[in-house]
Amino acid sequence: MAAVYTQYVIDGGPQGVSTPSTNPLRYNLSQNYPNPFNPSTRIEFTLAKESSVDLKVFNILGQEVATLVHGNLTSGSHAVTFDAKNLASGMYIYRITAGDYTSVKRMMLLK
Questions:
Q1: Residue 11 is assigned to a structural domain of this protein
Q2: What is the mean pLDDT of residues 24-42?
Q3: What one-character DSSP code corresponds to residue 10?
């Protein structure tokens, strides 16, 4: 199902309705959902163009605990599920690198 966005003008009335493009204009790494999570969570990201992508998870000490994506992906929206059933409760960091784009977010595993 495609998301629908409504655009409002200052006088409060709707100006138009549009659906997002299938090819995003920018890179984006979303916050995982749910957060906090147990034992799995979903991480979504968008790519402005086809890119070599690395999506990795690190513990709070900076040690890599998982590689979720490693390879070329097409432009558009993507999602992966991170299953942390074998990890201890705590704060984790996830980082995406796609071309020249890099972004980092935090997530909390509660068991």
A1: no
A2: 93
A3: T
pTM value?
Answer: 0.77
CATH number where 92 lies: 2.60.40.2550
Q: Is 58 helix (H, G, I), strand (E, B) or coil?
A: strand
- Please give the single-letter amino acid code of residue 35: N
Q: Is residue 13 part of a domain?
A: no
Tokens 């997002």 appear where? 20
State the residue range of the domain holding 39: 22-109
| Cα distance between residue 43 and residue 103, in whole Å | 13
pLDDT tens for each residue of 46-69: 999 999 999 999 999 999 999 999
Could you tell me if residue 87 is inside a domain?
yes
Total structural domains in the chain? 1
Q: What is the spatial distance between Cα 105 and Cα 96, in angstroms, rounded to a whole number? A: 9
* Distance in angstroms between the alpha carbons of the first and the last residue of the chain: 32
Q: Can you tell me the distance from the alpha carbon of 71 to that of 55, in angstroms, rounded to the nearest whole number?
A: 9
